[in-house]
Amino acid sequence: MTKVAIVYHSGYGHTKKQAEAVQAGAAAVAGASVDLIAINAEGNIADAEWETLSAADAIIFGSPTYMGTVSWQFKKFADASSKPWFSQQWKDKIGAAFTNSATMNGDKLSTLHYLFTLGMQHSMVWVGTGLMPANSKAAQRNDINFVGSFSGLMAQSPSDSSPEEGPLPGDLETAKLFGKRVVETAAKFKK
């Protein structure tokens, strides 16, 4: 059994939808056990959820991009992770991350760099998307990895869209492939 925990914050519901797509892709892999952990509006998770993170083989971080970085709620969670950091509880776990913002760029890479740095602080082994970008003239908005990210998963949801309208289907399919890749990588490291 490969245990994966997806810990994320979602302010408006778009990042939650992205997290659920990552979960669906991860759970589709035989032998995967996937827990979805939502950081609440106050930036907290339950004690049992900290234990879930400690027991996981892989941890996937997720946050919307607000003002060029993670939400304050995710940052509060990250600061609270200094407890497992001190005892290196997450050392050598697989780490990965995703983010969503209203614009195509939206400084999402800054958010992924923050999440990568958090993973490196915890001595994790980082996994990117492993997906080529859809960057030809024939590319369509709903192609896999249209946003063109390598270091982590990116999605775009228009600022006036509901979670039912965004992220778009191509971004959600990319999220499923990303979840699958993280589980498969974690399984290789367990051997």
From TrEMBL:
Q: Which Gene3D superfamilies match?
A: 3.40.50.360
Could you tell me which residue ranges the Flavodoxin-like domain spans? 4-183
Keyword list, A-Z: Flavoprotein, FMN
Q: Does the keyword Signal apply?
A: no
Q: Which cofactor does it need?
A: FMN
Q: Which SUPFAM superfamilies match?
A: Flavoproteins
Checking InterPro entries in the record gives: Flavodoxin/NO_synth, Flavodoxin_CS, Flavoprotein-like_sf, FMN_Rdtase-like_dom
Domain of life, source organism: Bacteria
**What protein name applies here?**
Flavoprotein WrbA
Q: What species was this sequence derived from? A: Herbaspirillum lusitanum
